[in-house]
Design goal:
With 115 residues, the protein is an alpha+beta fold. It has one domain: Glutaredoxin. It has 4 helices and 4 strands. The chain is globular.
Length: 115
């Protein structure tokens, strides 16, 4: 089963405004293949969500820029800023919770109040 991870340019693309998910992995990874049902069940068909499947590996600058160590790793962004990260997600619930943070990030004032 080919998942369809794509080789990305060395510089991170502009992820624009709103929610986005960067999914780092490789087609031959058994963990990546095993997570696809849960990932698809949660992310499939979410209006306005940009989902990038990024092929990772040694020497891949984008994966190194995000400090990816294991596959699959899902990086959830809102307006280009990381709001959550999942490594080898187990089931749909952690993905759903992380997606909620990308769709509805805390207000900047709430983030500053925690510091």
């Amino acid at each position: 089963m080919a998942i369809g991870y794509k080789t990305m340019p060395p510089q991170p693309p502009d992820y624009g405004t709103g929610p986005a998910v960067l999914e780092f992995g490789v087609d031959w990874c058994s963990h990546c293949r095993g997570a696809q049902d849960a990932i698809g069940a949660v992310l499939g068909g979410v209006a306005g969500l940009a989902h990038y499947r990024i092929e990772d590996g040694p020497g891949r600058p984008l994966g190194r820029a995000f400090k990816i160590k294991r596959w699959p790793t899902l990086v959830f962004l809102h307006d280009g800023r990381e709001v959550e990260r999942l490594v080898r997600p187990a089931g749909t619930e952690p993905i759903r919770e992380a997606l909620d943070k990308a769709l509805h990030p805390p207000a900047p004032d709430a983030v500053l109040a925690k510091l």
